[in-house]
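queue> pop job 88
queue> type: inverse folding (structure -> sequence)
queue> payload:
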């Protein structure tokens, strides 16, 4: 399974947050199904300081929409005749911190991750 969170500014203070989830089921080297879902939300932020915007968009927004994306995937795989693909919870804070550390290591500047 692969999870990706993207955020982009629309007209500030409005942002679009996309949660991309890709999963593949394989049995005896045969691909049974591939799931590729992009689930998005429009987020409007008011009275938020600039340094809090990125953590809100990359941690809190995906945390709120993940249960809905998880349900879509479970329903789609079940409706396709397979056992429902029940995804485990994701720690978006840890994911964000790992991405921040990776970005800092490649650029040499801590906290340099940009919103796409």
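queue> result:
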């Amino acid at each position: 399974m692969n999870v990706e969170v993207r955020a982009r500014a629309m007209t500030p203070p409005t942002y679009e947050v996309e949660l991309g989830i890709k999963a593949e089921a394989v049995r005896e080297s045969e691909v049974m199904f591939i799931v590729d879902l992009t689930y998005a939300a429009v987020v409007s932020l008011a009275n938020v300081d600039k340094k809090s915007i990125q953590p809100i968009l990359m941690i809190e927004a995906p945390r709120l929409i993940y249960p809905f994306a998880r349900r879509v995937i479970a329903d789609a795989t079940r409706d396709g005749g397979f056992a429902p693909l029940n995804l485990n919870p994701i720690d978006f804070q840890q994911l964000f911190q790992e991405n921040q550390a990776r970005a800092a290591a490649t650029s040499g500047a801590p906290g340099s991750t940009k919103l796409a």
